[in-house]
C-alpha cells in the first residue's frame, strides 16, 4: 500500500453539496491498484455517495481488513480516520469503535478473501449484532495480492488464470447475510455506478448492518474467459431486480415519481427510500420471498443485483444494549465513577 | 479426574494446631450445594474477627465430580494455602482415600456415620468424628434435594459446636441470606441445630482446634480478585468491555456487568456502558482495540488460551499504538491444561505476545486489593503509553476470597488520558502526525476519530514512518520500532514499583511475583523464627523498574519463587537485566494449587542444599 499523495486540483465549476464541499473533498490518496481494477470504481462510488449525502468527512470512520480491497480506504475520505486492521477481523474493530462512539458514520471495506474465509465468523457475528456499519464486500472471486488463488466465492466451474477449474462450492455472502437476518442486503456491480451509488447512500443511512456485495472484477487475475467474476461474464449475466432511489431527509419529494409498483421505505433518520421492482412481484421487504427469488435466478445462471432486502425497523447494537444517547467517549468521568461514598456503601456487602 | 496432590511426605505432617490456627478441608461432590454452606462457614469466622482465607479447589464440571473447599484460620494473619489440614470433612466417598491422607497427624476427620466407617478412611493416628448426617436429614426433611442441601448445613452446625463457631453470627447470616424466603430460613436453622446438638451430645466440644473471637478483621473485607478488578474497571471509567467466556476469567466481566447495572444505569434505563459478549477471543481483542482507538477506556478479560488467540491483534495494538487493557486470569497450561487450577504460566507468552519484536507492559497484582488498584493503573498506563497493558492475575487470586484491607477510592483521581489532542489543539496546529515524537519522550500525540478533520490519520499494522505513512524504507521503519522499544521500556519508572522489604543481616533474598505474596511472607516469618533474616522483593510490573536489578545485585543469593515449571520470571530477569546468572536461582511450584509456605521453604531448602 504505497502512499502517493494526490495533487490538489480545484475546479471552480464543480458542484457543491450542502456543506459547500465538492466531490474532490471526499477523495483520498492516489490508488495503487491495477489499472481497470473494479475496486477503484467502488471507491469512486463511495466518494459520490458520501458527497451526495453531505456527510462531513471527519465524522466518518473507514475500516478494512487485509487484501486488495482493504487497501482502498486510503483512496477515499482523506479527512476521515482510517483503520487497516488484520485479515478478516475488520468487523470486530468496527464493532469496538462503534461501541465507543456510535455517532460517527462507519464504513468497512472488505473482500471475498477477507470476509469469506478467515473473516467468515466475524462477518456473521457483526450481522447478528446489527452493528451500525456499511459493510462493502468487493467480490472478485480471487486472491489478487498473492496472485490468483481461488477465493471462497469462486463459482463451481470457474477457471483460474492458470487454467485450474474450481470444484468447491462457493459461499454466497448475499444468501448468507439473508439467512443470518441481515437488515439491509444488496448486490451490485462495480461497473454500474448508477445502481451502486444510490444503494451506498441508502446503506449509509440505514441504522444497522448494511451489507453490499459488489462484483468487482480483478483485471490482473480473474478477468479471463472461463471466469465467472469477469467484466464480460458479469455484464452478460447481470440481472437487476430493483432500482433504488434515496430521498434524503428534508429534500422535496418530486412529484414526477410515479410509485406504481414501487415500495417506499422510511429510514430511521426520516429519509425515504424508493425501491422499484424490475421483476414483477418482487418485494424487497419479504425475506423469504427474496431468498426464493434469488435462488430461482441463480439456478438460471443470473446474477441478481439491486437493493435486495431492507428492514428499516431494526434494533441496532446500541439499542440492544440500551446505550445512553451520548457516545461513550463523551460521557464525563464524573458520570462514570461512582466515587468513594458509593464504594464504602458497597464494602459492607463484602463483610 | 482432577484431584489435589495427596499430602507430601510425613515430614510435613504436624499435629493439629490450636486456637485460631488451623486449616479445614471440606471434600464434597460438586453440584450438591456445598459451596454456599462453605462460604457461610468462612464468612462467619471472618465476622468473628479472625484472619482467614478460602480456597475453592473445583473440577471443570457442573455436577458430580469431587470438589474441595479449604479454609485457613490464622490469628497471625497468614492466609496462604496450607497443604495439611487439621480437620477434614469427608463427604465424598470417591475421594476418601486421598482426603484422609491430608489430615495432619493427631487431627480430626468428620464423616457421615449413617453408615459404618469406610475402610478407605482408616488411619490410626487421627480422631474420627462420626455424625449421621444422612440419617438426621432423612428424619427431619422431606424431598431428596432438600435432604442433600441440608446435609451441608448440618455439618456446619456440627462445626459450630466442634470449633466454637459463634452461633449468633451464623444464625444472623442465615437471617440475612433468607430474609425473603422464610421456609428456607426455618429449614436451615433446623439443620444447623441438628448438627450442633448431635456434636455436643456425642463429643467433647470444642476440640483443641477452636475459634476465639478477635478484632483483626474490622477494616477488612473478603473479596475475590475478579470482583475487585471489575470494580476497578468501573471506577476507572471503562465504558467498553468485550469478552468471551473462559474459566477463570468469566467472573470478572460478570462482576463488571453486575456493578454496571448498579452504577452505570440511568434513570431512564439507558446505560453508560456497553458490554459485548464476543464470538471468540479474537473478536474480543478486536473490539477492545477498536474501542480504545475510538477513544474509550476498553478492556477484555481472558485466560492464557485467549491470549494465544489474541496474539495477532496484540501485535497490531502494540505497533499501531492503541491503548487497551487485557486481563489475563492465568490457569494451568499448556493447551487446555487444567482449566480450574491456578498457575503463573503465561508470563512469557503475555509480555512478548505476538510475532515480530514486541514487549508489553504487564502488571502483576498480588491480591484482590491490587487487582482493584491495578485495574485503574492499567487504564492510565495504556493511555499514557498508548499501548496494550496486561494485568496478569491468576485463578487463585481471581476466584478465591481473600482477606484484604477495605477498598478506598481517591475522589481527587483524574484519569490519565495521555497525549490526546482536543479539537482546539488540532485547530491550532499546522500539521498533525500521529507517530511523531514531538516532545522527545518517545510518546507521540493521539487524535480521536470525529473530533477534528486535522486529526485524521490512517492506522495500520503495516510498516509506517513517523508521519504515519506506509513505508517499506528500512531506516524509516526502524526509526519507529526503535522508539516503540524505548517508549515501552520507559514505563518501568511510572508503573507500580516493586515491593521491597529489607531486614538487617539478611542471608539471602526471595524475589517473587503475583499471588505468591502470602506464602512467601509466611515463609519469611518462619525463617525469622529460626533466626534467619531474609530480604523480600515482589515484582509488580514489566518492564522492570531500575530498583529490580539494583535489589538483585545487592544479594549474593536471590531465590526467584514463582508458579510455573520453567521459571519464567527467572528467565526474564536474566534476559532483561544485567544480573549475573550465579546470583539468581529459580524455585518453582506448578502443581496447579495455590502456593504454600511449605513449598517455598522446601523449594529453597533443596536448592540451597
Describe the structure.
- The complex is a heterodimer of chains A (351) and B (609).
- Helix content of chain A is 29%, strand content 19%.
- Chain A is an alpha/beta fold and 351 residues long.
- Chain A has a single domain, classed as Thiamin diphosphate (ThDP)-binding fold, Pyr/PP domains (Rossmann fold), CATH 3.40.50.
- Chain B has four domains: 10-202, Pyruvate-ferredoxin oxidoreductase, PFOR, domain III (Pyruvate-ferredoxin Oxidoreductase, domain 3, 3-Layer(aba) Sandwich); 223-405, Thiamin diphosphate (ThDP)-binding fold, Pyr/PP domains (Rossmann fold, 3-Layer(aba) Sandwich); 423-492, no CATH class; 499-608, Rossmann fold (3-Layer(aba) Sandwich).
- In chain B, 37% of the residues lie in helices and 19% in strands.
- Chain B has helices at residues 34-47, 96-101, 133-140, 144-163, 167-177, 182-202, 225-235, 250-263, 281-293, 304-320, 347-351, 368-385, 395-399, 423-428, 474-489, 517-529, 546-554, 568-576, 597-608; strands spanning 21-29, 52-57, 66-74, 85-90, 103-112, 127-131, 220-224, 240-243, 274-277, 298-302, 324-330, 361-363, 388-394, 401-405, 458-460, 499-501, 508-513, 534-539, 541-542, 558-562, 584-588.
- The longest helix of chain B is centred in the N-terminal third of the chain and has 21 residues, at 182-202.
- At the A-B interface, strand 2, helix 3, helix 5, helix 10 and helix 11 of A face strand 7, helix 7, strand 9, helix 9 and helix 10 of B.
- Strand 2 of chain A pairs parallel with strand 15 of chain B, so a sheet runs across the interface.
Amino acid at each position: 500500500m504505497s502512499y502517493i499523495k494526490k495533487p490538489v486540483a480545484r475546479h471552480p465549476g464543480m458542484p457543491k453539496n450542502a456543506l459547500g464541499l465538492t466531490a474532490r473533498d471526499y477523495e483520498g490518496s492516489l490508488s495503487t491498484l491495477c489499472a481497470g481494477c473494479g475496486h477503484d470504481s467502488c471507491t469512486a462510488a463511495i466518494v459520490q455517495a458520501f458527497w451526495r449525502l453531505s456527510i462531513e468527512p471527519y465524522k466518518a470512520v473507514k475500516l478494512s481488513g487485509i487484501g486488495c480491497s482493504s487497501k482502498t480506504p486510503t483512496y477515499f475520505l482523506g479527512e476521515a480516520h482510517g483503520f487497516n486492521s488484520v485479515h478478516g477481523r475488520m468487523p470486530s474493530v468496527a464493532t469496538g469503535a462503534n461501541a465507543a462512539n456510535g455517532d460517527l458514520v462507519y464504513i468497512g471495506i472488505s473482500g471475498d478473501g477477507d470476509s469469506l474465509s478467515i473473516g467468515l465468523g466475524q462477518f456473521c457475528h457483526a450481522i447478528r449484532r446489527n452493528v451500525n456499519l456499511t459493510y462493502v464486500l468487493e467480490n472478485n472471486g480471487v486472491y489478487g495480492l498473492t496472485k490468483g488463488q481461488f477465493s471462497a466465492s469462486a463459482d463451481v466451474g470457474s477457471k483460474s488464470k492458470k487454467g485450474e477449474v474450481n470444484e468447491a462450492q462457493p459461499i454466497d455472502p448475499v444468501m448468507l447475510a439473508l439467512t443470518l437476518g441481515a437488515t439491509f442486503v444488496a448486490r451490485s456491480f462495480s461497473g454500474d455506478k448508477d445502481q451502486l451509488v444510490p444503494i451506498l447512500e441508502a446503506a449509509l443511512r440505514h441504522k444497522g448492518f448494511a451489507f453490499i456485495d459488489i462484483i468487482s472484477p480483478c483485471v490482473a487475475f480473474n478477468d479471463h474467459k472461463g471466469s465467472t467474476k469477469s467484466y464480460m461474464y458479469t455484464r452478460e449475466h447481470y440481472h437487476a431486480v430493483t432500482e433504488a432511489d434515496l430521498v434524503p431527509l428534508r429534500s422535496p419529494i418530486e412529484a414526477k415519481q410515479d410509485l406504481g409498483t414501487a415500495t417506499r421505505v422510511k429510514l430511521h433518520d426520516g429519509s425515504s427510500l424508493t425501491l422499484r421492482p424490475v421483476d414483477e412481484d418482487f418485494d424487497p421487504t419479504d425475506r423469504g420471498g427474496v431468498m426464493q427469488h434469488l435462488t430461482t435466478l441463480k439456478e438460471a445462471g443470473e446474477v441478481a443485483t439491486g437493493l435486495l432486502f431492507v428492514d428499516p425497523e431494526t434494533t441496532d447494537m446500541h439499542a440492544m444494549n440500551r446505550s445512553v444517547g451520548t457516545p461513550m467517549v463523551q460521557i464525563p468521568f464524573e458520570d462514570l465513577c461512582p466515587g468513594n461514598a458509593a464504594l464504602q456503601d458497597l464494602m459492607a456487602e463484602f463483610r | 479426574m482432577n484431584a489435589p496432590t495427596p499430602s507430601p511426605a510425613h515430614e510435613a505432617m504436624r499435629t493439629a494446631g490450636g486456637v485460631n490456627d488451623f486449616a479445614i478441608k471440606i471434600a464434597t461432590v460438586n453440584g450438591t450445594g456445598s459451596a454456599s454452606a462453605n462460604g457461610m462457614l468462612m464468612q462467619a469466622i471472618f465476622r468473628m474477627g479472625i484472619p482467614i482465607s478460602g480456597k475453592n479447589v473445583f473440577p471443570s464440571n457442573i455436577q458430580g465430580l469431587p470438589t474441595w473447599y479449604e479454609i485457613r484460620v490464622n490469628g497471625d494473619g497468614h492466609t496462604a494455602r496450607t497443604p495439611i489440614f487439621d480437620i477434614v470433612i469427608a463427604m465424598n466417598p470417591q475421594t476418601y482415600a486421598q482426603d484422609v491422607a491430608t489430615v495432619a497427624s493427631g487431627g480430626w476427620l468428620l464423616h457421615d456415620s449413617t453408615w459404618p466407617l469406610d475402610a478407605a478412611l482408616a488411619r490410626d493416628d487421627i480422631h474420627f468424628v462420626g455424625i449421621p448426617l444422612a440419617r438426621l436429614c432423612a428424619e427431619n426433611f422431606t424431598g431428596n434435594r432438600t435432604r442433600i442441601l441440608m446435609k451441608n448445613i448440618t455439618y456446619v452446625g456440627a462445626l459450630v459446636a466442634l470449633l466454637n463457631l459463634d452461633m449468633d453470627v451464623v444464625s444472623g447470616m442465615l437471617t440475612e441470606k433468607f430474609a425473603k424466603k422464610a421456609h428456607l430460613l426455618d429449614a436451615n436453622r433446623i439443620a444447623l441445630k441438628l448438627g450442633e446438638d448431635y456434636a455436643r451430645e456425642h463429643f467433647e466440644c470444642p476440640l483443641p482446634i477452636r475459634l476465639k473471637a478477635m478484632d483483626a478483621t474490622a477494616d477488612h473485607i473478603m473479596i475475590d480478585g475478579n470482583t475487585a478488578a471489575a470494580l476497578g474497571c468501573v471506577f476507572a471509567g471503562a465504558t467498553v468491555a468485550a469478552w468471551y467466556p473462559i474459566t477463570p476469567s468469566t467472573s470478572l466481566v460478570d462482576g463488571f456487568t453486575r456493578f454496571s447495572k448498579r452504577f452505570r444505569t440511568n434513570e431512564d434505563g439507558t446505560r453508560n456502558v456497553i458490554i459485548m459478549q464476543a464470538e471468540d477471543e479474537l473478536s474480543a481483542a478486536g473490539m477492545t482495540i477498536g474501542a480504545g482507538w475510538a477513544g474509550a477506556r476498553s478492556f477484555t478479560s481472558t485466560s492464557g488460551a485467549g491470549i494465544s488467540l489474541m496474539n495477532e491483534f496484540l501485535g497490531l495494538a502494540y505497533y499501531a499504538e492503541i491503548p487497551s487493557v487485557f486481563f489475563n486470569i492465568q490457569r494451568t497450561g499448556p493447551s487446555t491444561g487444567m482449566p480450574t487450577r491456578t498457575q503463573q504460566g503465561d508470563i512469557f507468552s503475555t509480555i512478548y505476545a505476538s510475532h515480530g519484536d514486541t514487549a508489553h507492559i504487564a502488571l502483576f497484582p498480588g491480591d484482590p486489593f491490587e487487582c482493584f488498584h491495578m485495574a485503574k493503573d492499567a487504564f492510565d498506563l495504556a493511555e499514557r503509553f498508548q499501548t496494550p497493558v496486561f494485568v496478569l492475575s491468576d485463578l487463585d487470586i481471581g476466584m478465591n476470597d481473600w482477606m484484604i484491607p477495605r477498598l478506598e477510592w481517591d475522589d481527587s483521581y483524574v484519569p490519565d488520558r495521555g497525549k490526546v489532542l482536543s479539537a482546539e489543539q488540532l485547530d491550532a496546529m499546522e500539521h498533525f502526525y500521529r507517530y511523531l515524537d514531538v516532545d522527545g519522550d518517545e510518546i507521540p500525540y493521539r487524535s480521536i476519530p470525529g473530533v477534528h478533520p486535522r486529526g485524521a490519520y490512517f492506522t495500520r499494522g503495516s510498516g509506517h514512518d513517523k508521519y504515519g505513512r506506509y513505508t517499506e524504507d528500512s531506516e524509516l521503519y526502524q526509526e519507529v520500532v526503535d522508539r516503540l522499544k524505548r517508549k515501552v521500556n520507559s514505563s518501568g519508572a511510572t508503573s507500580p514499583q516493586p515491593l521491597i522489604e529489607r531486614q538487617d543481616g539478611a542471608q539471602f533474598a526471595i524475589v517473587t511475583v503475583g499471588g505468591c505474596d502470602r506464602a512467601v511472607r509466611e515463609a519469611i516469618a518462619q525463617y525469622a523464627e529460626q533466626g534467619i533474616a531474609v530480604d523480600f522483593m515482589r515484582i509488580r510490573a514489566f518492564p522492570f523498574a531500575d530498583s529490580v536489578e539494583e535489589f538483585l545485585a545487592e544479594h549474593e543469593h536471590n531465590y526467584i519463587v514463582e508458579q510455573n515449571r520453567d521459571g519464567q520470571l527467572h528467565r526474564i530477569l536474566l534476559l532483561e537485566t544485567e544480573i549475573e546468572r550465579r546470583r539468581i536461582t529459580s524455585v518453582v511450584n506448578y502443581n496447579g494449587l495455590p502456593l504454600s509456605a511449605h513449598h517455598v521453604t522446601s523449594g529453597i531448602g533443596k536448592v540451597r542444599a
